[in-house]
Amino acid sequence: MGRVEGKVAFITGAARGQGRSHAIRLAQEGADIIAIDACEDQPNIPYPGATEADLAETVRLVEALDRRIIATKADVRDFAALKAAVGDGVAQLGRLDIVSANAGIGVDPRLTEDVPEEVWTDMLDVNLSGVWRAAKAAIPHMKAAGNGGSIVLTSSAAGLRAYANASAYVSAKHGVVGLMRTLALELAPHMIRVNSIHPTQVDTDMIQNEATYRLFRPDLEHPTREDFAPASQTMNALPIPWVEAIDISNAVLFLASDEARYITGVTLSVDAGSNIK
Amino acid sequence: MGRVEGKVAFVSGAARGQGRSHALRLAQEGADIIAIDIEGQIDSVPYGMSTPEDMAETVRQIEALDRRIIATKADVRDFDAVKAAVDDGVAQLGRLDIVSANAGIFSFGESDVLDEQHWQDMLDVNLTGVWHVAKATIPHLKAAGGGSMILTSSDAGLKGMANIPHYVAAKHGVVGLMRTLALELAPHYIRVNTLNPTTVNTDMIKNAATYALFAPDLPTAEQTLENIQPRFTAMNALPIPWVEPVDISNALLFLASDEARYVTGVALPVDAGWLLK
After folding, report:
1. How high is the pLDDT of residue B1?
2. Residue pairs spanning A and B at CB distance below 8 A
3. Residues of A in Cβ contact (< 8 Å) with B183
4. Tens-place pLDDT, residues B146-175
């Protein structure tokens, strides 16, 4: 029997990267999936966005596990679209137990005084307000079912400490912690648990791009993944440059499962010790 | 295949309560066990501590799962005894991968009236005893090329609580010790984390002395579990009075397993949201 057998999980940003990994890991353990992704390039972000082909691949991978998945192209900046996608998914799959508010955009590195208004606003709109909208869309279904549930918000190591040249990202991810704690208090009487996850660098497109390489290796004209690795490793206590998406998924699975039935209000770092350095 | 299949775990305070539950949960998932407990009384502790019969029952339950267990009567205040038990267990079981520094005591008294013996016993067991366990096991974990050490702290390791200054100080100290160990051992791929439980349903809280602590306003005859229960519930965000030992064990299993291979330096509350309140 799977560790989340018979449950239904809603995942934002599910087309690729961590979100796809979460969908697969939860499906492996018996969950059906409601998936959304913007499937578009994001403005002011120095790497390409996910595509509809990416989301279709997530669907294929979940269905290959004999689980059901309802996937919708929807942007977390659009509450009406989110609400419709969740409502449709719950109508088809019958319930909602788990929420992974995972969708997020990465850093366009700049000093705080050089951040343009629209870059700041986009960051907060996706990485903080988008998390709130995902929760807002899901909570009525979880309350109505009366089964309790588990909401996992993806923050970051940068949700608990600062990094230079990433003030909008750091601010949004800190905001996610405040939102998590508030939701955990509000939803505790309904036995709905809310926790946040705080990854160090994860080996996905969000960090594996030239802008991030340049941020970490300003000394090189054309830094590569291999040049980036030792610089990235200096963030961590464990001698590794980054973690894999599956490591975050395993933490999401733990928090989503009944093994964590009394864990709420927690900031869970999956960060190779970056927070203690 | 079990989630800690083929691994060997050391558990202090394994005769009953959380320690026994940890041993059982890890054995269910494929680990062999090295167990110690004081199997005796400390005079400043206001409830009955473990007995040789308790440890015999832990051994019986582990062996019923077809796992091996090497159990030794040893007090965590006695480093030589802890070291001998660890060395003997590793000699017989072949390796060491997981350490649960779980042994602990509870007593109480306001700071200005607490006597020297209560203070010293608490620090000796709940803080120095944890260091002794770490010190005795680290050489074996280094020899194994990695591992997971889980120190049992408490929500009282992260916030203050009246009437238990020595407990709060010792459990805070465990968090500091964990963070230091996590840094020191990261180069060896040894991860170190704490568990920070709320009230757990064990003999440590289910005793007349604890009832009196939580209901000083009631006549002795009314200081019953039934009357105390709402007061425990009021401490938590989730509407429950306490968690069960298996809830702590499930969190320990996650941290012990390879699913948490990059989780280190983390204080993980299993506290029904107590810290939020």
Report:
1. 86
2. 112
3. 237, 273, 276-277
4. 999 999 999 999 999 999 999 999 999 999
Per-residue pLDDT reduced to its tens digit, B53-96: 999 999 999 999 999 999 999 999 999 999 999 999 999 999 99
Residue A201 gets which letter from DSSP?
Answer: -
- The token duo for A6 is 């018979």
Average pLDDT, chain A: 96
> If you average pLDDT over every residue of chain B, what do you get?
96
Q: What is the DSSP letter of B127?
A: I
CB contact under 8 A, A272 and B271: no
| B149 sits in which H/E element | strand B147-152
Per-domain residue ranges of chain B? 8-205+244-268, 206-241
Question: At B191, phi and psi to the nearest 5?
Answer: -95, 145
Instruction: Please compute Rg for chain B using Cα positions.
Output: 18
Tokens of B149: 């050490």
Two tokens at A241?
């440059």
CA–CA separation, B263 vs B256, rounded Å? 10
Q: What gap in Å lies between CA A46 and CA B112, rounded to an integer?
A: 60
Residues B115, B66: contact at Cβ < 8 Å?
no
Which residues does chain B have within 8 Å of residue A202's beta carbon, measured at their own beta carbons? none
> Which pair of structure tokens corresponds to residue A276?
């203690």
Look up the ipTM and state it. 0.91
Residues of A catalogued as catalytic: 169
Q: Give the pairing of strands A149-154 and A98-101.
A: parallel
CA distances from A65 to A24, A124, A153 (A): 8, 35, 25
Separation CA B17–CA B59 (nearest Å):
14
Q: How confident is the model at residue A45 (pLDDT cuts 50, 70, 90)?
A: confident
Decide if B157 contacts B269 (C-beta within 8 A).
no
Yes or no: say if B127 and B77 are a contact pair by the CB < 8 Å rule. Answer: no
Q: Which long-range contacts (CB under 8 A, 24 or more apart) does B59-64 make?
A: B59/B35, B61/B20, B61/B24, B62/B23, B62/B24, B62/B27, B62/B33, B62/B35
CA distance B260 to B253: 9
How buried is B233 (Cβ within 10 angstroms: 0-12 exposed, 13-18 middle, 19+ buried)?
middle
Domains of chain A by start residue, with CATH: 8-276 (3.40.50.720)
Please state, in angstroms and rounded to a whole number, the distance separating the CA atoms of residues B139 and B143: 6
pLDDT at residue A162 above 90?
A: yes
CB B94 within 8 A of CB B144: no
Q: Which of the four pLDDT bands, split at 50, 70 and 90, describes residue A228?
A: very high
Calculate ∠ Cα A202-A16-A67, nearest 5°. Answer: 120
Q: Which fold, B8-205+244-268?
A: Rossmann fold (3.40.50)
All residues of chain B having their beta carbon less than 8 Å from the beta carbon of residue A251 are: 259-260, 263
